[in-house]
Amino acid sequence: MRRRWLAAVAVSVAGLLTLTACGGSGDKAAGGGQSEQKKVEVFSWWTGPGEADGLKAMREIFEKGNPGFTFYDAAVAGGSGDQARALLASKLQANQPPDTFQGHAGAELQGYIKAGKLEPLNFLYDELKLKDVLPQELIDQISVQGQVYSVPVNIHRSNVLWFNPSVLKDAGISEAPKTIEEFIADLGKVKETGKIPLSIGSQWTAVHLLESVLLGSLGTDAYNQLWTANADWSGANVTKALENFKTILSYAGTPQEDWQPAAKQVADGEAAFNIMGDWAYGYFHNPAPGGLGKTSKTDFDWAASPGTDGTFMWLSDSFTLPKGAPNKDGAVAWLKVAASKEGQDAFNPKKGSIPARKDADKSLYQDYLAWDLEQWSSDKLAGSIQHGVVANDAWRTEINDAVGLFQQDQDVAKFQQALIAAAKNSGQ
Ligand code: GAL
């Protein structure tokens, strides 16, 4: 089958490198004693419920196989890495990289590569024969001129509509909405019951919602076109998509602190719908204390986000070897675990994602994850905005700002102008 992968694009790093540090848990103590040498600083944003379970599973394998190294969890809290990515930019700018960091395959990673911040990993790809087990199209997203710069650990799906079956039933809705129009009608029906039609989290979750609404409104080809040299952000189809976004947002509940409390409102029956990536599955499904220990189809259910059935809006978490990593050997040891079948099969069922490797043990991926694997093999592809595939960090940040302003003023025309300007400024 012919997969439609978006070409990774060149990146202007100005925005990336001017982001401000915002603090975090991961700063190394000064000094370079022996134990410091052994410490492997792994930078991610997987601290919260659900996410941390996946990291822990991979960490355990690392620790078992590498008694000579100490895993140092430099995760910075905040879903989607909004805080983490800003802090990372300042660390890289100051040439104080962690030993390895999480970066999204696609435009985001290309930004780090173009800025000269990463070591190529061809030696590791050769040693572990990774080109045989990772999809070539994914390798293309993390390569420049034949050099590969990261190890992808998973594939996540962004365009998932999570819903509470009982809340829908009480509102007289018999199945998940298939189109944006049906979705808007259903949001209205839920509103009449007094429940929250759509739960929402912090600022970035609105951008996450936007990417699904753009895809569902425009269709896959027109959405993918927005990230090419022929993009036209000024079209009437984009205006209509933004109007849909405005209408959908008008049904959103009070913004929650992050994606987990917003997802929880659905699992607890306070809200009907939430559009969120499939890390939400790990959170719903994993047993307490990491997850909510909920039962799928009863406590929560899922469908493709409205208007996007047949398209997989993808993203992929990958780990890197930064130039100047204080503990290169330790970082490589971590990358080996991240690249391994054992590591990916421990990490992904907990994380709510499917493995990047093609040879993973399929029997470990049940329930939502079995559906996910199936969709991944048959769907058309579109890349996520918020999670680094189609827009570099500078562009994504501008889109975030535009969404933030729009949430205040609700002015569609102004919003569209801001998105046109963001595309122009992106330099991608
Ligand atoms: C994404 C990341 C996922 C998950 C999500 C929510 O950017 O790729 O692994 O962590 O944010 O935090």
Note down, in words, how this protein is organized.
This protein folds into 2 domains: 38-156 and 316-378, 3-Layer(aba) Sandwich (D-Maltodextrin-Binding Protein, domain 2), CATH 3.40.190; 160-313 and 384-425, Periplasmic binding protein-like II (D-Maltodextrin-Binding Protein, domain 2). Helix content is 45%, strand content 13%. It has 19 helices and 15 strands. It has helices at 14-18, 34-38, 51-65, 82-93, 107-114, 122-127, 136-141, 165-170, 180-193, 203-218, 220-225, 236-249, 259-267, 279-285, 328-339, 341-351, 368-378, 393-409, 412-425, and strands spanning 39-43, 70-73, 100-104, 143-144, 147-148, 150-152, 154-157, 160-163, 196-198, 271-275, 301-304, 311-315, 317-320, 354-355, 380-383. Helix 3 links the parallel strand 1 and strand 2 (70-73). Helix 3 runs antiparallel to helix 16 (341-351), helix 10 packs across helix 12 and helix 10 crosses helix 18. Mean pLDDT is 92; it is low at 6-32. The structure holds beta-D-galactopyranose. Beta-D-galactopyranose binds at residues 45-46, 51, 79-81, 104, 156, 277, 279, 315, 317, 387.
The gist of it:
The protein has 428 residues and is an alpha/beta fold. It has helices at 14-18, 34-38, 51-65, 82-93, 107-114, 122-127, 136-141, 165-170, 180-193, 203-218, 220-225, 236-249, 259-267, 279-285, 328-339, 341-351, 368-378, 393-409, 412-425, and strands at residues 39-43, 70-73, 100-104, 143-144, 147-148, 150-152, 154-157, 160-163, 196-198, 271-275, 301-304, 311-315, 317-320, 354-355, 380-383. The model is unreliable at 6-32 (pLDDT under 50).
